[in-house]
């Protein structure tokens, strides 16, 4: 079975093609704002302009043309409404024009499914850390449940906001990581974990207020230490609570070496537990949508084209995952 997946929730317009569990194509084009954060209307215009090229590139990476596709999957949500619309429209028109079954998939669930496909994780606790999300998710009783999440802003968003105050261009996470390597003194910042939830806005405000008074490399170092320790503490609690022995770290912030190191240490210290990062597929991409779509289509078939809209606030734990057996 060949599934084509379309991702368009935020910065990235991506198309991936998966044939019987093998990734055949993963093409994408990312919108980068000239200044400041993401402008939803500019991002959606970017997706609209790039859709045809990304589709052609993806098909060209395979031996197939569009008529060979058995199922079209698209990111139905959560995400920015205008951006979701573009992916949804491209998916529906391809499905209608070529008479191909279609499914709408949950973006967060897709991050986990591509993580399972590309690492050997089978039933992980997932730490999903990106520009727009910070969640700890694990399968339990028929759904992927959110065991912990940010009470305010996402971790990537927190890093990008702090970076902006340091005049680092968007997205700021990678440069904060570079500067943090030069820092060595830990500066006192707020540490907020409540049960398995955490919060970053106080950390951003406090770190911004210290920029003129302390060494900024030390501040970047301390920001990462505090923010990542909160995430790892909450993830460890979720592992203890669920009894699961794999930790999957994914989303754009999973690229951070210090976060990976802290996750690896935590997993090692919890006897025999395993830590996984789906390196090439952490960022938003079309292959992850194809993988979740393929599993969904196999288990439950296609959906009614006319009833299939987007859902900007679709929560992970509202999503049916009929392909997973208890
Ligand atoms: P989502 O829709 O999943 O929230 P997104 O487009 O907002 O996606 P991603 O593309 O998954 O996010 O990731 C982008 C985020 O990752 C940005 O906030 C960026 O600063 C952060 N990031 C990228 N590389 C690093 C790094 N090395 N260290 C820390 N943060 C990073
Ligand atoms: Fe994402």
Kindly describe this structure.
The structure is a single chain. The protein is an alpha/beta fold and 326 residues long. The chain has nine helices and twelve strands. The chain folds into two domains: 2-111 and 282-318, ATPase, nucleotide binding domain (Nucleotidyltransferase, domain 5), CATH 3.30.420; 122-279, Nucleotidyltransferase, domain 5 (2-Layer Sandwich), CATH 3.30.420. 42% of the residues lie in helices and 20% in strands. The protein has a five-stranded mixed sheet with strand order 3-2-1-4-5, sandwiched between helices. The chain has a five-stranded mixed sheet with strand order 8-7-6-11-12, sandwiched between helices. A two-stranded antiparallel sheet has the order 9-10. A hairpin with a 4-residue loop joins β1 and β2. The longest helix has 27 residues, at 216-242. 51% of the residues are buried. Bound molecules: adenosine-5'-triphosphate (ATP) and fe (ii) ion (FE2).
Structure summarized in a few sentences:
By secondary structure, the chain is an alpha/beta fold. The protein contains 9 helices and 12 strands. The protein folds into 2 domains: 2-111 and 282-318, ATPase, nucleotide binding domain (Nucleotidyltransferase, domain 5, 2-Layer Sandwich), CATH 3.30.420; 122-279, 2-Layer Sandwich (Nucleotidyltransferase, domain 5).
């Amino acid at each position: 079975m060949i599934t084509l997946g379309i991702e368009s929730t935020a910065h990235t317009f991506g198309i991936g093609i998966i044939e019987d569990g093998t990734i055949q194509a993963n093409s994408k084009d990312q919108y980068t704002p000239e200044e400041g954060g993401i402008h939803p209307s500019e991002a959606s215009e970017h997706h609209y302009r790039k859709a045809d090229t990304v589709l052609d590139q993806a098909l060209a990476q395979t031996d197939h043309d569009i008529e060979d596709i058995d199922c079209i999957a698209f990111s139905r949500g959560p995400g920015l409404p205008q951006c979701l619309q573009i992916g949804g429209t491209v998916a529906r028109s391809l499905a209608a024009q070529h008479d191909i079954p279609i499914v709408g998939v949950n973006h967060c669930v897709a991050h986990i499914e591509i993580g399972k496909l590309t690492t050997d994780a089978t039933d992980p606790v997932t730490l999903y850390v990106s520009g727009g999300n910070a969640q700890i998710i694990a399968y339990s009783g028929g759904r992927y449940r959110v065991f912990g999440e940010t009470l305010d802003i996402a971790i990537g968003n927190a890093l990008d906001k702090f970076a902006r105050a340091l005049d680092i261009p968007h997205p700021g996470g990678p440069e904060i990581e570079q500067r943090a390597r030069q820092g060595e003194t830990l500066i006192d910042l707020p540490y907020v974990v409540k049960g398995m939830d955490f919060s970053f806005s106080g950390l951003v405000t406090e770190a911004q207020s210290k920029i003129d008074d302390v060494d900024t490399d030390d501040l970047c170092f301390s920001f990462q230490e505090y923010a990542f320790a909160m995430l790892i503490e909450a993830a460890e609690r979720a592992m203890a609570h669920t009894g699961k022995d794999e930790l999957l770290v994914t989303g754009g912030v999973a690229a951070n070496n210090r976060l990976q190191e802290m996750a690896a240490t935590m997993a090692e210290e919890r006897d025999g537990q395993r830590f996984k990062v789906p390196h090439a597929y952490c960022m938003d991409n079309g292959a992850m949508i194809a993988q979740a779509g393929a599993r969904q289509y196999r288990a439950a078939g296609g959906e009614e084209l006319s009833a299939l809209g987007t859902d900007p606030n679709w929560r992970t734990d509202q999503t049916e995952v009929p392909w997973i057996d208890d």
